Amino acid sequence: MIGKISGRIDYLGDDHVLIDVRGVGYVVYCSDRVLMSLPGVGEAVALYTDLLVRQDILQLFGFPTLIEKEWHRLLMSVQGVGAKASLAILGALGPDGVSRAISMGDWNSVKAAKGIGPKTAQRVVNELKDKAPAVMAMGGRGGAASPATLDEVIETPVAAPAARAAPAPAPSAAAQAEALSALSNLGYAPGEAASAVATAAAETPEADTSGLIRAALKLLAPKG
User: Fold this and answer.
1) pTM above 0.90, yes or no
2) What is a biological process (GO) this protein takes part in (predicted)?
3) Residue 97 is part of a domain; what is its CATH number?
């Protein structure tokens, strides 16, 4: 399994990038959003990858963060969602948007992705809703892949050491993960806890962990 590619960009296509690693070119398929975020030809790049193995094909799919790669893996586990559909959903919403839509049961947002019908969107939400908390909790350890320097790329194999530190995760991601853990310890089901935290985070993006927990508990409180 090839889990990460670190090298120099040789070519940027409509749906893929060609990355040179010590003279070997790897074709890596990416969403439109990821392709637009990549540096130019000749520059260093690193992507986490997922290898799709079929009888007549081997394809690498690339993601800038482990969270996005994990969502791709989970989306592909849903009946009717192949690699192309998964990239369409991630390209339209981004990993944070996917986490929010699924945890809140917002299948209309998923349906907005190109080629995704209402039945498939509802299936995605229904099948993955209880898995959203675990992925959201990766916020503190799902940082971006960091490319090696060009000298390291030439001298070392694919898994070259990172030349620069990955950007620190947003405080809200860590706060959401801690809030989810706290609500789970209080006995709330993963799905309802994730939905409440996602809603609270959207309404109060500046909130810390305590603020998110308080806001989420208000949302979970019985009405009437």
Assistant:
1) no
2) DNA repair
3) 1.10.150.20
